[in-house]
Design brief:
The protein is 20% helix and 22% strand. With 327 residues, the chain is of the alpha+beta class.
Length: 327
């Protein structure tokens, strides 16, 4: 989950977000940053990058700016106790989600997984066979209900909605139809499509929601996590981490640059373009990780450059690394 800057220009569509989401939305979460997890030098700017989406019709466009594809996965941050329900980034992202993914049905509101989803019943009600159009998921109404409970609001409408999405025998489907009724295809707004039914994930979400409503608090909330991120605590250490599978490009002045590697090492480094050098032995942890911390003073302008000496093999890394300092 990442967020993007939407910019200040008011258009009918800003970064793919419809104007109906509301004016003044500066930041919102996106679905995913499309970068290879094995790439040690990832492009971490969420405003750039292209996301390919599967399950779309043959010949249909399947590449979109990643900043335009959104989902509600960020609600987990509230359910687990990492973010407050009224966190501005959460509430702004919800406006985007409701504008792009929400569908109102006779049973109640329901949400899609993400925009441009191609996994679901086709436009004419035909089955998903390799491609289709993503439909609304009842379990997402349950996840939204948990957020509403965390925000101190009534969740009974969401419980009734999930019950309304079920089959006559009480089975919850993976997806429900989200368009006008197609009687000839047995597709009715807010009723099961030809997707998996029962979907145990959806039933689990419904049972969990009943428990949460009974308790008056979100069942997923982890007290220790909430205490760490939402409780009274001192300001977190400002830190930027460099590691072999994620080469930090920059670190801000006043931050600590942590160089961490899964084996012991000696760091040979400089903060003045090799005019002077320092050698610092790594500190071992019980987690099999060794690290060196470099405090970047407010006056620092030159980049931090470094290389490794590996005691175990009595050898040098053979290349230098650079982390620029941001003012």
């Amino acid at each position: 989950m990442l967020y993007i800057q939407s910019g200040g220009v008011k258009l009918s569509v800003v970064n793919g977000i419809p104007e109906s989401a509301g004016p003044g939305i500066r930041r919102h979460y996106i679905r995913i940053l499309p970068d290879d997890v094995g790439n040690p030098d990832p492009a971490e700017d969420p405003n750039s990058g292209t996301l390919k989406i599967a399950n779309l019709a043959n010949g249909a466009q399947n590449s979109f700016p990643a900043k335009e594809i959104v989902d509600a996965g960020f609600l987990e941050l509230v359910r687990y106790g990492i973010r407050q329900a009224d966190d501005p980034l959460i509430t702004e992202s919800l406006k985007v989600i409701d504008a792009m993914l929400k569908t109102d049905t006779p049973a109640g509101s329901v949400w899609h997984r993400y925009n441009r989803d191609g996994y679901g019943q086709r436009e004419d009600g035909g089955p998903f066979v390799g491609w289709g159009q993503g439909r609304a998921w009842p379990l997402l109404a349950g996840e939204r209900a948990h957020y509403e409970l965390a925000a101190g609001r009534d969740v009974k409408p969401f419980i009734r909605a999930m019950e309304g999405f079920a089959s006559p025998t009480g089975l919850l489907p993976e997806q429900v139809w989200d368009q006008r009724d197609l009687p000839d295809s047995f597709m009715f707004l807010g009723k099961p499509t030809g997707s998996a039914m029962p979907l145990m994930w959806a039933h689990a979400e419904y049972v969990k929601l009943l428990r949460s409503a009974s308790d008056g608090q979100v069942f997923d909330r982890i007290p220790q996590v909430a205490q760490r991120y939402l409780g009274d605590r001192k300001e977190c250490q400002r830190i930027e981490i460099w590691k072999p599978n994620r080469h930090a490009r920059t670190a801000k002045e006043g931050y600590t640059l942590r160089i961490q590697v899964p084996s012991m090492f000696r760091l040979h480094w400089t903060r003045d373009e090799w005019a002077t050098t320092l050698d610092t032995a790594s500190f071992a942890t019980t987690f099999g990780i060794a690290f060196v911390d470099i405090l970047i003073p407010a006056s620092q302008e030159e980049p931090i450059r470094f290389t490794f000496f590996w005691p175990e093999s009595n050898s040098w890394e053979g290349r230098d690394y650079t982390v620029r300092v941001e003012q």
